Model the fold of this input.
Amino acid sequence: MSALSRSVSGAGASLPGPAHAVDPARAAYRPARTLASRAGRSAITVAETRRFVIEDPGLLMHRAWQIARSDPEAAAELGYGEPYIMDERQAFTLVLADCGGAELGERAEQLGLRVVSAATVATCADSDSLVYEDEQIFE
Done:
């Protein structure tokens, strides 16, 4: 019998291919994955936090007014209506709602903001234990 053909059953049948390809003696049993088998897994929660400083209030307000004028319905859902008189906090809220946290972090300078710090914390949901923690300070 050649090295590429080996018996894989008691009847003497052989299949072409390497000896380890179909070797019942080496076969490992793996239980089927079911919903019940997934219940033992841990859930990990990752929270990312960025702190911003408003460097250019005029630029931030200008972008907020653009957003409010281009999508008055979305602005109204956040409580803004004409004449769109808002303070920096309200302008920040409107800009954040428009672009989301990740994009806000990427476009901070274009929006009159500066990222002061970024923190990432991962916890195990089952035991509330800390899995990972990192903080970067940019000041």
